[in-house]
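Q: Is it fine to ask for two folds in a single conversation?
A: Yes, each is treated on its own. Send the first.
Q: Here.
A: Result:
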Amino acid sequence: MSVVLFDGFELLDVFGPVELFGMVPGKVDVEFVGPQAGAVASGQGAQAIATSGYAAAAPADIVLVPGGRGTRRLVADGRFLSWLRGWAGSASLVTSVCTGSALLAAAGLLDGYDATSNKRAFDWVRTHGEDVRWIRRARWVEDRDRWTSSGVAAGMDMAVALLGRLFGDAVAREAASRAELDVHGDPSWDPFAQTADPPPPGRTGDSPAEPADGSGLPARPATGARATSHPGF
């Protein structure tokens, strides 16, 4: 799995999924690629080390594109988008967390796909891409070889689901257990969807099932603590 780093990436978007994939040693090799080899600063200030620059990045089987403040700049960076389109377009599986889906959309990698993103940035994200069906109420969206998650911590739920798809449910459950993660296994569970602006006609969609209690929130299992909102980017 190759993870795309850039200045201002969101830490948990990267290291949440990487932590979970690391719980199944020997199954997935993780590589970080950045503008150049070396340290890349996150939006929180901590740095991650890219093992190769974009230009030298080896072909990837699985691509993960995080979100973060840096996406606001990169959606208008034609050189970066051209590289991402060519490099990630040949991958077997392309994934994103949070506003990383804005980069995929701007690069044309989500045209013809359903996708989601961080709900606090949803109105901005859905302005990108020519033919993307943005799903507002979704923890994550799986559409063929594209997987996109909602904001920040949602990437961990998507990562567990992806582990299950790739290696089986037992492996996914073991990874989540090792991480002591209370997994939200329903991709339509999205208590943060109400923070997004209402969808314009013909541009976005919702999961078909709505709660019967009129709360506007999907049902949440009784066990475990409810997640709190993150500002998102």
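Q: Second one now.
A: Result:
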Amino acid sequence: MLTQRLRTLLLTEAKRHESFYFYDEQTLKESIHHLQQAFPHEQILYSIKCNPHRAMLKTIFASGIDADAASLGEVYAASDCGVPSDHIYYSAPGKSDYCLEKALGQCILIADSLNEIRRIDALAARKNMKAPIGVRINPNFTYTDEKGCSSKFGIDEDAFFSALPELKKLSHVLIIGLHTHLRSQELNWHILSNYYKNVFSLASRLQEKLDGPLCFLNLGSGIGIPYCQDEADCDIESLGHELEKLRVIHEDTFSQARILIESGRYLAGPCGWYVTHIVDTKESHGSHIAIAANTLNGFLRPCLEHLVTSTNPEAPAREPLFYRTGSTPFYVLNDTQEMEKVTIYGNLCTAADIIASDVLLPKLAAGDVLAFPHAGAYSAVLTPFQFSSQVPPEVLFLKDVQ
């Protein structure tokens, strides 16, 4: 939501920078507070990959949030921000031996395959240590209670339980946690709640087969944010109430386990804006055209949305690259009352650099400012800043002075 406060801040910075990302710490802290209030007995996880900006990480982790790392570099980033090693969870498919070895003792490794468990055991043996690990399981259920399906992520549930007797004989790994994750950007709290119920059931079956108690249960599947005008916020209060019921039911079973909640883009997304300028306008065969600075090479998501929906308006989500039609709205920060239909291109030498086609907007002129909300997550990290060797956008972080 573009408040008057934010509009003033963005226009002020737009006088200094042609294009920039703007992260507002006040909004970030509000999101952290809301999530922690909704889940008072759970530990919140932040996926560093959605936005690894140093100032963002420092604010998030100073609030007691745990780290979800998808690379060795992200393990180091969390550690550098003071996150204890047993609160950093390193989960990704295809980890190399180099990454596994360097990560041992720096985090909790989440094994993504049976082979990876065996490799961790061998690497830990070289260091004469016993590595506490979690396992990512691809369950026999889907997000919507259907039969499980093939996935690049995790170990199929049946395959894991079949191999468990062998795994328990490994002398240098100890399975202490469960990780599942089936889908991100979920707004329906009923779906999330039912999914959590299924994960608790899976965790109960796992704990029955282990020699010791689970130390953590990562429920996975991130909480979404409303990108489109016809969407509403996920009702995290209702979700929190339902999860509390599940926690109480399973309290004795998982008395020693941390319950981990994936925050998705709930924390980072709303605090971020992308701002750019119109640098030129023209007429072409009766069409109004505006050229903006640093679009495809500044903020990729609008261009990807246009590319996908121009061929299939009903295309399914391909997160984190594409969500759905209408998911990258923007504001024109001028005061004109005159409206016109316009197509907005970027200033790269490719016709694919287009963010809006024949849309009705306040009439644009060179120097006008465009502001894109929800640019705090999976935005800068996805964008090819090197394309055409142009000056990349600035990245600004506004500290909360309260």
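Q: Anything structural to flag on that second result?
A: Two points. The chain has a mean pLDDT of 95. The first strand starts at residue 20 and ends at 24.
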